[in-house]
Amino acid sequence: MKDGYPKEIRDVAAVLAHAGFEAYLVGGCVRDLLLGTVYSEPVEPKDWDVATNAKPDEIQKLFPDSVYENKFGTVGVKTDSEDQKLKIVEVTTYRIEGKYSDKRHPDEVTFAENIEDDLSRRDFTVNAMALGMVNEESGIVDPFHGRKDLEDKIIRAVGDPDARFTEDALRILRAVRFSAQLGFAIDPRTEQAMRRHAGLLEFISKERIRDEFVKLIATDRAHEGVRMLERDGLLKFVLPELEEGVDVGQNKHHIYSVFEHNVRSLQYAVEQRFDTDVRIASLLHDVGKPRSKRGEGPDCTFYGHQVVGERMALEVLDRLHFPKDRAERIALLIREHMFVYDPETVTDAGARRLVRRVGKENLEALFQLREADRIGSGVPKAQPYRLRHLKFRIEKVSQDPISAKMLKVNGQDIMQEAGIAPGPKVGAILAVLLEEVLDDPTVNDRDVLIARAQNLARLDDKQLAEMAKFARKSADEAQTRVEEEIKKKYYVK
Ligand code: ATP
Ligand code: MG
Fold first, then answer.
1. Which residue range is the domain that position 370 belongs to?
2. Is residue 294 helix, strand or coil?
3. What whole-number distance in Å separates Cα of residue 93 and Cα of residue 118?
4. Could you say which of 120, 151, 182 is where a domain stops?
5. Within this chain, do residues 121 and 188 fall inside the same structural domain, yes or no?
6. Which residues lie near ion ligand 2 (Cβ < 5 Å)?
7. How is 224-269 classified by DSSP, letter by letter?
């Protein structure tokens, strides 16, 4: 990466230049390259976009191994890069966009003559810079002073904010997302225009809203972004159900309103770098409370709010066109988030039932959600050791029990194959076999065990009883050893 950008990009630019065309890096990658000079650490661009004055057919001629899939001027140039992000370099003809009447793609694409015009259709000044890669024009093209805004950490619409948000209202959510992603403030004029045009989000496709929402949730300041959505009157177009909890007071076990608690739970999930699904579950986990609230003041109740919340989450996520399995997983976490983990109350059977309801693969996420709930309450009263205790119980019940049940033969087999009658001898033989299997799991084979049982059956009763006594003692010790290890793992005293 000699010039701050990869060889594959330089190669593409060189081919364009050789044919007499211009080539610039544009958009997010320029912003991210420059961010590295503002923050002390480099920021790795998510993708590399090249803009050129060559028309799509001209680009295709220069790069026979390329694909032109859409009508928006972007040609995908294939490279032999190892890097997933560089296998296809997107080369886009300078363009200005018409109206987005389907609110998804511009109705028509008009190619532009120069890079400045191309930059003028972009959303924010920090996203509207280009970096020349062909000698004569090398350097930054920055007609909207994005570099200054980047240094001042400001998200500002390019040109007239009202015009930008009217053209494409998704930009309103993009402003919030970039603000959270970059830790930038939104310029007041831009933010006022966002509030003014919030209603236009109604017409934006749910998929586009979902994608921005998920990107927001994945940032390190997702919780601040959600607060901004609420403050600026945007939340009702993204998650109206979440807004129901604003100023809804809780009972004596809480100090925050329902909304505040949901956001704080998200914040904890973000700080712990929990995955996006757990973050969304944390944000929505008490979404059912306003509708299940009974009474007022310190003694009000929210019985069944987790079930109401499960249903609401499914509605929310379905409306945003989340894939069904993902929506169901998040809703399941919400439904189960009230699980009991009081060591005095939870039995092995209870732990087993929880595992069955939630699924082993979702347990970790459920514990994370519960932790986020606990910390997000601001008054974490439950003791973390209790949660660890439950984890220990669960691990114990989901482990193969160290008992005669794990043997590949049972008492019936032994009586039949070794020709002995029911009685203590059967139990003794099983105990010896178990001890031997614990010692060497490879002997847990039906034929091997039956042969061994036939030998043991020939011993006299006293000798066999002695062996069994020894075997049982050592099996007990093995069980204790396993439990000790699990306990250590979860620091359960
Ligand atoms: P990141 O990839 O980190 O999410 P990005 O800035 O690359 O950020 P993309 O969505 O990949 O964002 O878009 C690339 C560029 O295209 C942006 O930097 C911006 O210049 C422009 N752009 C994208 N979407 C819009 C839009 N809705 N309106 C105007 N310009 C846009
Ligand atoms: Mg990008």
1. 239-398
2. strand
3. 9
4. 151
5. no
6. 28, 46-47
7. HHHHHHHHTT-HHHH-HHHHTTTT----TT-SS-HHHHHHHHHHHH
Kindly report the CATH number assigned to the domain that includes residue 335: 1.10.3210
Q: Where are the alpha helices (DSSP H) in 124-238?
A: 146-152, 161-167, 170-182, 188-196, 206-217, 222-231, 235-238
Kindly report the backbone phi and psi dihedral angles of residue 76, in degrees, each rounded to the nearest multiple of 5, phi listed first.
-90, 115
Q: At what angle do helices 324-336 and 348-358 cross, to 10 degrees?
A: 160
CA atoms lying within 13 Å on the CB side of residue 348: 6
The DSSP code sequence of 69-110 is -SSSSEEEEE---SSGGGSEEEEEE-EEE---TTSSS-S-EE
Among all bound ligands, the one having the nearest atom to the CA of 25 is: 1
**Binding site membership of 450 for ligand 1 (Cβ less than 6 Å):** no
H or E element at residue 279 = helix 276-284
Structure-model confidence comparison of residues 456 and 291, the more confident one:
456
User: pTM score, two decimals?
Assistant: 0.80
Asked if 244 and 360 sit in the same domain, the reply is yes
Rounded-to-5 percentages of helix, strand, coil across the chain: 60, 10, 35
Categorise residue 233: left if φ over 0, alpha if ψ from -120 to 50, beta otherwise.
left
Residue 28 CA to ligand 1 center (angstroms) comes to 6
pLDDT digits (tens, 9 = 90+) for 247-297: 877 877 777 888 999 999 999 999 999 999 999 999 999 998 888 877 787
Q: pLDDT for 68-100, tens place per residue?
A: 877 677 899 999 888 888 999 999 999 987 655
Claim to verify: residue 183 and residue 208 sit in the same structural domain: yes
Q: What percent of the chain has pLDDT over 90?
A: 59
Ligand 1 neighbour 122 (Cβ under 6 A): yes
CA distance 230 to 242: 9
User: How much distance in Å is there from the Cα of 153 to the middle of ligand 1?
Assistant: 17
377 within 8 A of 425, measured Cβ to Cβ: no
Helices 384-398, 348-358: crossing angle, 10 deg rounding: 80
Residue with CA closest to ligand 1 atom 30: 122
Residues 24 and 111 in one domain: yes
Q: Do 179 and 244 sit in the same domain of this protein?
A: no
Neighbouring residues of 174: CB distance < 8 A, sequence distance ≥ 6: 123, 124, 212
